[in-house]
Amino acid sequence: MRPIRRRNISETAADMLRAQVSGGKWPIGTRLPNESVLADTLAVSRGTIREAVRVLVSEGVLETRQGSGTFVCSPAAAPFEKNLRHYSQRDKQEVLDAIYRQAIRLAARRSTPSQIEEIRSALVKQHRSESDPADRDHGTADFHRRLVSSSGNKMLIDLYVSLAAALRNDHEPVVSESWMLIDRNASLSSLLNSIEARDTDSALAVVEQVIDK
Description:
Elements: H1 9-22, H2 35-42, H3 46-58, E1 62-65, E2 69-72, H4 79-83, H5 89-110, H6 113-128, H7 133-149, H8 154-169, H9 182-185, H10 188-196, H11 200-211
Antiparallel strand pairs: 1-2
Helix pairs in contact: 1-3, 2-3, 3-7, 5-8, 5-11, 6-7, 6-10, 10-11
């Protein structure tokens, strides 16, 4: 058995916000109350709310729009996600790797100029957060989520988001999230440029350098 892990308050807050989405109180397209209101409602600090929202943004449940606020953009955890706990971290990692490969293939064929621009903006933001490990990891997750979203396959996107979130919640250091290590082993810019150029082979070569190690 694994030891019980003490959850921090931002994780608990994220669960409570996630429950509002999965329970139907905040359907897709809903604008969330501002930080002050959420902080008062959950009796936590605004910093805790900010971190909880950032977690849900990285999972693809919420999105922040400059000057407009934070909105629900995807359903939260469903029974499928809850059942993922029955699979080993290795099983989830191998399936996630396969999903990511297919997403790259589809993105190289289907991504639109506006999606490429959004992904590039996420990459710039990720580079700017290199000095803060937490911000860097969230930025990297957002980059890959947007990349997968450009595949245009909704089922694949949902599976990816669910598995990536499950891996982040795993606590046994068995297998690393190799898709998250691309920025440390190769150039995210090269990956994005290959997709923009519709060069599937070059894009997959970047991914394979990491996954097959």
